[in-house]
Specification:
Blueprint: H1 2-7, H2 11-23, H3 28-32, H4 34-50, H5 55-64, E1 69-74, H6 79-92, E2 98-102, H7 107-110, E3 123-127, E4 133-137, H8 142-153, H9 160-174, H10 177-186
Parallel strand pairs: 1-2
Antiparallel strand pairs: 1-3, 3-4
Length: 187
């Protein structure tokens, strides 16, 4: 895991890459994903402006005496990532180091942490001091997963557009609190 950690980037670089891919696309995928980068950057900016760490969650983190690191497998075009990654980074700031490994740069890491056979992101790997994975979380909090199951159970009456809308409204209102809670519980 240390190899992946060493090739991971910090959140500022993650944002910079997102802006570069939006403003100066280098690949066909960058061009195709341009609207998703634009939306992702907007959502990350909103999360950064609105995020406030919950005092109880901070106390819980401190009480766990977690000395490890957080490695997030992500891409800035992902809607789930744009809501979760900035909140995770902000919450752990000053407590534990957080880095981001770009999923599309090397699929060998995400392939070890598939979600129902898919490379769903973000995937949060909780590492101990020796870079061993002690737990993993993702790609979305429990409520987001429940919305996905509702859509999959009845896509005719609960459409993909309704699912995406409800998910983004949830993310906007929740501001990362559920994501942080679920991750802290895994420490």
């Amino acid at each position: 895991m240390k190899k992946y950690w060493d090739h991971a980037i910090d959140f500022d670089d993650y944002l910079q890459i997102a802006h570069q891919r939006l403003n100066n696309p280098q690949t066909e995928k960058d061009v195709e994903f341009k609207p998703y980068y634009e939306l992702g950057i907007h959502r990350m900016d909103r999360t950064l402006k609105k995020f406030e760490a919950d005092e109880e969650q901070i106390k819980n983190l401190v009480s766990k005496n977690f000395k490890g690191k957080i490695l997030i497998i992500s891409e800035a075009w992902c809607g789930d990532a744009s809501a979760s990654v900035p909140a995770i980074v902000e919450f752990f700031k000053g407590q534990n180091e957080v880095k981001i490994f770009l999923r599309d740069s090397d699929s060998s890491l995400i392939d070890q942490y598939l979600t129902n056979g898919t490379q769903s992101i973000p995937k949060v790997l909780i590492l101990n001091e020796n870079f061993e994975v002690i737990n993993a979380w993702g790609p979305r909090p429990k409520h987001g997963h429940e919305l996905l199951l509702k859509y999959k159970a009845d896509p005719e009456h609960y459409t993909k557009d309704q699912f995406y809308n409800d998910l983004q409204v949830y993310y906007s209102r929740n501001r990362g609190k559920d994501t942080i809670q679920e991750i802290v519980e895994l420490l």
